[in-house]
Amino acid sequence: MTYDNENIFAKILRSELPKSKVFEDAEILAFHDISPQAPTHILVIPKGEYISFDDFTTNASDEVVGRFFSRVGKIAQDIGIAENGYRIIANTGNDGCQEVPHFHIHICAGKKLGRMLAD
Ligand code: 5GP
Q1: pLDDT for 17-29, tens place per residue?
Q2: 47, 56 in Cβ contact below 8 A?
């Protein structure tokens, strides 16, 4: 599978689509999900062209992967959800019901999130 440059998050990265930005640096972008599933629902994406969690952890360096997840944790602290808690999700591939083929982490928080998986 090759990376699709026309996926929604690629367009957001190129500023061809609007976003509500939470954080940005040279390697990552965090922004609010357009259809929030919790009071806080943020997406964190690498700027590199990785299709999925599997692609990212296989093909990005350990340093890039490590910095990415460090920043996810730092964002959660900075927006004030770490104390009450939150959930991170990486839907991956077909069975994981991944819709957008650019690797992303969901950060959901702001209420008791309930069961981990719905039927
Ligand atoms: P996935 O199902 O691939 O893990 O999650 C994709 C997420 O992207 C969904 O939660 C969906 O609401 C969000 N999304 C889809 N299109 C847009 C968009 O144009 N802008 C933003 N901010 N989020 C989007």
Answers
A1: 999 999 999 999 9
A2: no
